[in-house]
Amino acid sequence: MITKVRNHPSQNEALLFERSSPGKKAYQLPALDVPPVDAAEALGAANVRAGIEGFPEVSEVEAIRHFTRLSTWNYAIDHGMYPLGSCTMKYNPRINELVARIDGLAWSHPYQPEALAQGSMEVMARVEAALAEITGMDAVTLQPAAGAHGELTGILLIRALLEKRGNPRKKILIPDSAHGTNPATAAIAGYMVQNIKSSDTGVLDVSALDQIVDRDVAALMVTNPNTLGVFEHNIIQAAEILHKKGAMLYMDGANMNALVGIARPGDFGVDVMHLNLHKTFSTPHGGGGPGAGPVAVKKAFEPFLPAPRLKRSARKWTWDYKRKHSIGRVKAFYGNFGVLVRALAYILAHGGEGLRNATVDAVLNAVYIRKQLEPYFDLPYSSPNMHEVVFSDHRQAALGVHTGDIAKRLIDYGFHPYTVSFPLIVHGALMIEPTETEGKLELDEFVGAMISIAKEAETEPQLVKNAPYGTRTSRVDEVAAARKPVLRWKP
Amino acid sequence: MLEVCGVASPEELFSHLPEAVRLARPLNLPPGISEYEIVDYFRARADENLAGFTSFLGAGVYRHFRPVLVDTVVSRGEFLTSYTPYQAEIAQGTLTTIFEFQTMICQLTGMDVANASMYDGSTAVPEAAMMAARVTGKGRALIARSAHPEYREVLRTYARYQGMPVEEFGYLSETGTIDLEDLERKMDSLTGAVIIQSPNFFGIVDQVKAAAEIAHRRGALLVVVFTEAVSLGILEPPAEADIVAGELQSFAISPSYGGPYAGIIATKEKFIRQMPGRLVGQTVDSRGNRAFCLTLATREQHIRREKATSNICTNQALIALMAAVFMTVYGKQGLRELAEQNLAKAHYLAAKFPPRFQGKFFNEFVARVEGRTPEELNRALLKHKIIGGLPLGRFYPELADSMLLCATEMSRRTDMDALVAQSATLPAAKEVLA
Ligand SMILES: Cc1ncc(COP(=O)(O)O)c(C=O)c1O
Fold this sequence. Notes:
The complex is a heterodimer. By secondary structure, chain A is an alpha/beta fold. Chain A has helices spanning 39-43, 60-71, 94-100, 103-106, 118-135, 147-164, 181-188, 206-212, 235-244, 337-373, 394-397, 403-412, 440-459, 461-465, 478-483, and strands at 139-141, 171-175, 192-196, 217-223, 248-253, 272-275, 295-297, 309-313, 316-320, 389-392, 419-420, 429-432. Chain A has a 7-stranded mixed β-sheet with strand order 1-7-6-5-4-2-3, with helices on both faces. Chain A has a 3-stranded antiparallel β-sheet with strand order 10-12-11, covered by helices on one side. In chain A, strands 8-9 form a two-stranded antiparallel sheet. Chain B folds into 2 domains: 50-65 and 332-433, Aspartate Aminotransferase, domain 1; 68-326, 3-Layer(aba) Sandwich (Aspartate Aminotransferase, domain 2). Chain B is 35% helix and 14% strand. In chain B, strands 2-8-7-6-5-3-4 form a 7-stranded mixed β-sheet, sandwiched between helices. Chain B has a 3-stranded antiparallel β-sheet with strand order 11-14-13, with no helix packed on it. A two-stranded parallel ribbon of chain B has the order 1-12. Chain B is built from 13 helices and 14 strands.
């Protein structure tokens, strides 16, 4: 039975361009306090455009109604559980938003003199120090803008160190359970990708690894816990195998929400890793970004970090640009500072003990879901899970109901779907990550919904296959969208 | 819950971890603090930044007023706390705004398609160069020295490890526009991308048509970069470009010490399949109603893995939404008027600080500082709570005697007069006003 939601009308809303009419305006500008300038004269007549064809013209009330109406068509964490595996959709504390908007921080210009930017630099230094402590690594760069950008930075760092040692090598090893950004990153960093098979228990096969690692291997990119939510318990041996042959261990830290305060990658052999502050450290996803993807490294990589680096001298923070071994910049300025402010607010609010408690709760929630749903869904890997659990649709698929169908039906029950069809090593995957945010009431509601859908799959498979029913938009034809792409509005 | 999980204490949930990986001590971080203390901490940091100065800095990051509606909209939890819109049925809000965003970027830039965002303008540049290399099959890139110096650095970082040679071509010392002869000289049959910025780093409207002509004659694509999006309210869009790579910080994004901002890539229809980043497309739902969804994902990492057009996954969606609200609030008439105000302010200031280059400029320009270094002038100005222009020596040794000054609609006439007066009251600066 659906208990979490019932329908209520949502407003229809046209596109901006369809509701525009000439002369309407939502803006105010002060009267110009300097003489106006003739644009054709100042810019050259040929450089001056006619009006922007098709650009919106709406009133202020229309503008706010437009975006408010559209917003009501979204599901969000603020509505309820958002169990997307690998995405760590935890509550985004509003204090983060408030402090990021404090004038002296929000309006600091990246080129304002260092003497007038000490507060911003202190914030960044504090984030670097906290992340170094949490990861057990020696140095941190905050420049990368998201996880994938951190991966690229990290692999370039490995490349730079190996090059310095005489041979950048050719290949990056990537487990078949890895996220798509890992192989895409390796390719952009100029490496060949060699996929390696996970063992029957869903973890690295170290004896196979020992065979594979040769002088052409630059690094292994591993996610830990991996995308099955399983801790790579052989990680220390894996690191030894790699290091013995001069290769490096890169860790995708997307799943750090399972480890903060419990185990530190720096202590288990990782050389370079990235974090996703928009996952583990509570900064909002905002419908797809912005994020921040700091990279943490062992000492040997420090000389290669992107320039500039924060440096303390004469009791002041300065930017050190003289870094002759640096891989260079990966982004203009210093990083997504506004995101770093939010992450620091989260770290300050929790403190060391609070961060660890969050990890414990996240794992407890995921194990709880696993235990409750195991009787109803196929669990392809029985290894102990941490912050997320991956089922397969094996049992429901036999009835013609697939993971994507179950996901859509979950919407009718008032939940955002879990991650569908990932990781690729699980056929028909249902990847569920509750995070520490959820209490028992919400978890039980979710478990109840999943069990109810499992029963529907047996008694009324068609009901599940055509879901959702309760949304203003019914199942969307993604195939048609790709066949004949319409990527912009036209009159 | 513990009973269901079959453990006596939550700690047991971790008992499967090898002892050697466990952290045997508490994290060395101070205890958690309350909301009040957090606000206090960040206010104190903000005070160390010494806000309250008048600033004439631009150089890729601009001070523009942020209409109130922008924060109102992006503070809505439905936008703020949702994920990438993979589940289209419950993400139509985000998807519709991205479709509108893509449309507005096309209208603004004169391109056929625009993506849902890149990390920022600087990373959009290497993405555009790699895209041009895929389209043309030619890996070499030529970039104007008058493009943002930090963008050029980012391009070099990306290019270095991909066997993508990058070379720079110069600008004319009289006009500040690109040196077309130098470009022509450096073109060769292996060049896939010619990259220029307009308005360029010196604020000058650059020669898009002429650059396009040279690039196209040799089978390369022209990439046009912009850092000051407000300029597109009045300037001809770079329609001759094949790819436009831009930064939208000017559209209601606070400077925030360098980020988060939002980049875009826009291009011609025929290059869609080589584009990096997410795209939203129009379709229908099973009841036949208009709906939107992410599309052409076969370009992307989660499908194509090592053969993807880019490794980007998380982008800058919420920042793109801010830009979309900004464009909606200002609209057709407002963006024009805003651009005209910027033009007027910068030209008012330029009348007192004669520009070094003769090229036409929008809202920033290079001024020579006479009698002392720009750094010295800036130090003197700071005493009067004025942050002067960006001294250019750090990026252009030949312009070590000059600074880049920017004026926007937020530069009050009284502030500009104060800048001029304070520069003048110092004896060594008399010539500046001559
Ligand atoms: C395991 C894993 N790796 C990498 C990424 C990429 O991170 P981002 O989206 O921040 O670029 C993700 C995020 O979706 C992920 O789940």
